[in-house]
Amino acid sequence: MKILAIESSCDDTGVSVSEGRKILSNVLASQIEIHRKYGGVVPEIAARKHLEIISYLVQEALQKAELSVSDIDVFAATYGPGLVGSLLIGLSFAKGLAISESKPFVAVNHLYGHIFSNFLSFPHLEFPYIVLLVSGGHTEILIVRSYDDITKIGKTIDDAAGEAFDKIARILGLNYPGGPEIERIADGGKEIYKFPRPLSKKDNFDFSFSGLKTSVLYFLKKNRDKFDIKDIAYSFQEAIVDVLTQKVFGAARKNKVKNIVFAGGVAENKRLRERAEEIAIVEKVNIYFPPLSQCTDNAAMIAIAANEKIQKREEYSPLSTNAIPYLDIEND
Ligand code: KG4
Ligand code: ZN
Q1: pLDDT category of residue 329 using cuts at 50, 70 and 90
Q2: Is the CB of 325 under 6 A from ligand 1?
Q3: 265 lines ligand 1 (CB under 6 A)
Q4: Minimal CA–CA distance to 196: which of 180, 219, 173?
Q5: What is the mean pLDDT of residues 8-26?
Q6: Most buried among 54, 120, 165, 292, using CB within 10 Å?
Q7: CA terminus-to-terminus distance, the chain
Q8: From the CA of 281, how far away is ligand 1's center (Å)?
Q9: How far is the CA of 92 from the centre of ligand 1 (A)?
Q10: Looking at residue 118, what is its pLDDT?
Q11: For ligand 1, is residue 290 a contact (CB within 6 Å)?
């Protein structure tokens, strides 16, 4: 079954063509340069940019797959969670293609994309596995036992981990997105400031990052120029990496799960990878970090999740499917 999938939940426009679990093409247009000058994603601009580029990307994805639109069996798109204006562009475009080609349409939960795209990089990954999803919009720990058995066992109660990186970077006068900038600046820094590890003593798998942000802010105000930005970036990164690893390995131990997958933009962080590798040896757990291009949003993950959904549910989605900005795992 050949699927053409569109991802447009935030600021990346992606189109991918797949056949089964094989990706035939995967093209992406990033808007990072446009949003950088505003210090974050501007939803109105994001939606307009998706609209400008989507038809060209669909053509490019078909060309790269050496197929024409009439060869496609199913059209898929992300319907949530994400920015409503952005979601509506990809969703409407995919539905339009389905109508004009008289082919079925399938709506995909973006979170399922992050969860099931791991089969792309790790074809031998076995259930059950834990996913630590850490991006600009998400910080969640999920146990995946099968396509229809996913439990969220931890989440952030305020900011997402990537959002915390972005906010601290902004306070430090660094560019957007803040994660890679903090990582770059932290190189060669030392942990001379012990920032708080929010909720780390709590016996659950929830996260909180807003107190950490406030603590960095107070520290900077109090100490004015008496610090090295490298050490601040390093100390902050250590605090986040500590909390993320402590919670996800704790979740694996408590639930007796031996496989952990890291997903989302923050999973690109080298210090997180390094710490996780150290802990995994001690805990005797297998860890999986997707290649960098698979950490961040793309349409191949939507194509893969669409394929899984069709195989498991044996049904398509109605054309009345609307964009759901706060779509969760449980209500898919
Ligand atoms: O998954 P993603 O591309 O988009 C969504 O938010 O859905 O994640 C982007 C987030 C941003 O907050 C960015 O600062 C963070 O991931 N990020 C990183 C790194 N690369 C990207 N955070 C820490 N270290 C990195 N190397
Ligand atoms: Zn994402």
Answers
A1: confident
A2: no
A3: yes
A4: 219
A5: 96
A6: 165
A7: 23
A8: 26
A9: 27
A10: 87
A11: no
Pairing of strands 12-19, 22-30: antiparallel
Predicted TM-score of the model (pTM):
0.92
Query: Hey, CA dihedral for 96, 310, 111, 149, is it positive or negative?
Result: positive
For 126-289, CATH number?
3.30.420.40
Asked if the peptide bond before residue 128 counts as cis, ω within 30 degrees of 0, the response is yes
Q: What would the two tokens of residue 76 be?
A: 């898929």
Mean pLDDT over each residue of the chain, to the nearest integer: 94
Q: Report pLDDT digits (tens) over 310-326.
A: 999 888 999 999 999 99
Distance from the alpha carbon of residue 107 to the mean position of ligand 1, in angstroms: 24
Distance in angstroms (rounded) separating the CA atoms of residues 296 and 53 = 19
For ligand 1, is residue 86 a contact (CB within 6 Å)?
no
Beta strands in 126-190 (DSSP E): 129-134, 139-146, 149-155
Q: Which of 13, 83, 115, 165 to mutate to test the pocket of ligand 1 (most atoms within 8 A of CB)?
A: 165
What is the topology classification, in CATH, of domain 2-115+297-313?
Answer: Nucleotidyltransferase; domain 5 (3.30.420)
Separation between Cα atoms, residue 124 and residue 131, nearest integer Å: 16
Does ligand 1 come within 6 angstroms of the Cβ of 113? Answer: no
Question: What is the mean predicted confidence (pLDDT) over 258-275?
Answer: 96
Task: Tell me the one-letter amino acid at 247.
Answer: K
Out of 296, 302, 327, give the residue to mutate to test ligand 1, the one with the largest number of ligand atoms within 8 Å of its CB: 296
Question: Is 126-289 the same fold as 2-115+297-313?
Answer: yes
Please give the Cα distance from 257 to 298 (Å, whole number).
27
Pocket flag, ligand 1, residue 269 (CB < 6 Å): yes
**Residue-range domain boundaries for the chain:** 2-115+297-313, 126-289
Q: Sign (positive/negative) of CA torsion 169, 155, 107, 2?
A: positive
CB of 31 within 6 A of ligand 1: the answer is no
> Cα of 274 to ligand 1 centre, how many Å?
17
Cβ–ligand 1 contact at 7 (below 6 Å) = no
The pLDDT score that the predictor gives to residue 170 is 92
How much is the pLDDT for 47?
Answer: 97
